[in-house]
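Team,

Forwarding the record for the chain on the shared tracking sheet. I've put the sequence and predicted structure together so nobody has to dig through attachments.
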Amino acid sequence: MSQSKNRSNPAQAKTESKKTTGRGLGRGLNALLGAETLSAATGTGVEQVKKVKLNDLSPNQDQPRQNFDPERLQELADSISKNGIVQPLLVVPARTGRGYTIVAGERRWRAARLAGLTDVPVIIRALDDKEVQRIALIENINREDLNQIEEAQALQRLLTEHAMTQEELAIDIGRSRSAIANTLRLLNLPQAIQDRVRAGSISAGHARALLALKTEAEQITLSDRIISDGLSVRETERAVQRALTPKAVRIEPNEAQKLSVKATELSISKALGTKVRFTYADGKGSILIRYKNLDELQRLLELFGADERS
């Protein structure tokens, strides 16, 4: 139905295409699944959409997205029940030779099952493993369906399994190299913290702040505080900064120094004829002279030569 609308209204189709391409992924989902690209790749004009039984489709085992929110899945199922599946799934022939493997659209496939559908619209394409993985990653990023840990793992697989550099990957998926590097750094965190990001207990912003701490124990301890105290990302960054700031070390006097201080205190007390408290540490200190009444204060002032009447 949507294809016929676009053919009958080219201006509207052009506007919608422009909106899609402006999302920051230079080679986003529209570039991979759009009609023009499909025709260029196959040389057959517009690729045909065909109906395939749900049971003939299998999820991609290398799908970057591992968590599917049940509530959002049910919302999509309700929408599919009312409106059907608007965008076909992208699939490839299964390696076993029977059925098809889902490249893009696993969430729609799951929701279709919930909605009670028996078949779904698909576009069948011949793709190699790298293209399957890249398209699956881009679709999820474009739809903002991946958590940051899933995205980091998918990026890492593209780098290692297909011998890509970060620069090549940045160009390929329309991200800056620094954005890719920052996402990949999350994989340096302990597994316990990665699991918390995956579960949504802490955000990727919290996790990035924890990376600055020196030990895993410190990172996990602060992540516990983030959850228990509800720390914001900014509060977490301040906590990390405090942990990294060296504390002043107080040098306690040894026993000989303590005896020397006590002896000096007694000596000054005897000389002044009143109780004196003498402190000393690191080459500096203070003398506290006590007096019981004004007469004794007057005597001390005369002793120090500070009497105004003299």
